[in-house]
Design a protein that fits this description.
Conserved hypothetical protein from pyrococcus furiosus pfu- 392566-001, domain 2; 15 helices; six-stranded antiparallel sheet; single chain; alpha+beta
Length: about 425
């Protein structure tokens, strides 16, 4: 089902890549303002391509990219390759070191209705538009999105393990994760990857905005070139693929921050909660995320001077008016967005994607701090989501609310770039691909 291709990556020239730590950057949707300011100080950092600065940012990135190519700051690899990418990491509360194994390649950009690439959450329109403009101006994929395939026989892992023994790059990133990049040039092995993945559908784990940007861009180009063959570079997207059956797939919760609600009154909100929720006051706000863990339809609510644990009454679920299948209605985040954000806070589901009243934060301590400081009126603390729930949503044809999942760790930006310019995308005559 899914067509993949090896890539001729653009990478920093060897003399610069010796200090790869100075050239990498976080993804555009997780980089903080503080990180941005520091990264912008290095004129060669990948941040200038992924999150360009200035009033005409996308054009600035295009000019800089042209300059880097001309001056040899980045160089294109001679041979198409599959790039092996391992991430070694730990999670809070555990001493175990995990290793997420995967590989980076081009994948054909499929329309959602083809059911080859499966999404599980909604996107935020402004972020998609930013990605379209950047792709249009640069014709470059700066960082891979994260896709998931399922294989309980672990067919490809032996090739990944072999390739990573001779790494191209290895360093510790901003998350404290050890990122390691290897490469596979062997045409016989690459063909095995191509043949194996063509039988799979792919769940889009992370990078919905970048993928939608590629999809919109492809459609634009198809309109401009009605005689297209389907093999042009704009038909492909850069993706990091990992196996859902490994034990290294971690999905962290993303909490909701609420601000700017007119006539916000916490006493009135608490009173409304009692209709559909079991409500319990919590003395120590710092413990609420531990108190709700493992409990279905349970959330923490942080207010200026009160902390509350709420849990939906089972009989209340039948009141949900959203037209979803039962298994989607029963998801924690569907409950949150219907009963808390629409019913109690008054933000209709149809408006939530673009609402200025809702923001997202993965850090519990940051949520608590923002509420205490008055930077947010309240925070809704959520729990982890399982990969089985993600699969369930994907195969249902429905989506979760935006920012439902946070697959950890995030991929790093700066190890490689992928061009979709025709003369750079197409394989050279001496390659079988």
């Amino acid at each position: 089902m899914a067509e993949i291709k090896p890539i001729r990556a653009w990478r920093y020239k060897d003399s610069l890549a010796k200090n790869i730590d100075d050239l990498t950057s976080p993804l555009f949707d997780v980089v903080s303002e503080k990180q941005l300011k520091a990264l912008y100080q290095n004129p060669l950092n990948s941040i200038h391509l992924s999150v360009p600065d200035g009033p005409d940012a996308a054009s600035n990135a295009s000019l800089l990219l042209h300059q880097w190519k001309k001056e040899g700051v980045i160089e294109q690899d001679k041979l198409p390759a599959i790039y092996v990418y391992f991430q070694y990491f730990k999670v809070a509360g555990s001493t175990k070191e995990y290793c997420r194994k995967g590989f980076i390649c081009h994948i054909r950009t499929y329309d959602w209705n083809e059911n080859v690439i499966l999404r599980h959450e909604n996107t935020i329109p402004k972020s998609v538009n930013d990605r379209i403009e950047l792709l249009e101006k640069t014709e470059l994929h700066v960082s891979p999105t994260h896709g998931l395939y399922t294989d309980d026989s672990f067919t490809l892992e032996k090739y990944l393990d072999e390739a990573i023994t001779d790494p191209v790059y290895e360093h510790e990133d901003y998350q404290g994760v050890r990122d390691v990049l290897g490469v596979i040039h062997d045409a016989f092995v690459i063909q095995k990857f191509i043949d194996f993945i063509k039988e799979k559908s792919i769940i889009l784990a992370d990078g919905h905005h970048r993928y939608e940007g590629s999809l919109y861009y492809k459609k634009r180009k198809e309109e401009q070139y009605p005689d297209h063959t389907g093999n042009e570079g704009y038909n492909f997207h850069l993706m990091y693929l990992t196996n859902t059956e490994a034990d290294d797939l971690k999905i962290l919760p993303t909490h909701r921050l609420i601000k700017g609600i007119q006539n916000f009154d916490q006493d009135s909100i608490i009173e409304k909660l009692h209709e559909d929720f079991i409500v319990k006051e919590i003395e120590d706000a710092a413990t609420v995320n531990e108190i709700i863990v493992g409990k279905r339809w349970a959330f923490g609510i942080l207010l200026k001077d009160r902390t509350i644990k709420v849990r939906l009454k089972p009989e209340a679920l039948s009141k949900m008016k959203w037209q979803f299948p039962d298994e989607i209605k029963a998801l924690d985040l569907t409950v949150l967005h219907y009963f808390l954000i629409e019913k109690i806070l008054g933000i209709p589901g149809s408006d939530q994607r673009k609402s200025e009243n809702i923001s997202f934060d993965r850090s519990f301590s940051e949520c608590l701090s923002k509420v205490i400081k008055g930077e947010a009126q309240m925070a809704i603390i959520t729990q982890d989501i399982s990969i089985e729930e993600v699969k369930q949503v994907c195969h249902s044809g429905y989506t979760m609310p935006q920012k439902s999942t946070y697959f950890y760790p995030k991929v790093i930006c700066g190890y490689l770039f992928s061009s979709i310019k025709e003369n750079e995308f197409q394989s050279p005559p001496y390659s079988r691909f």
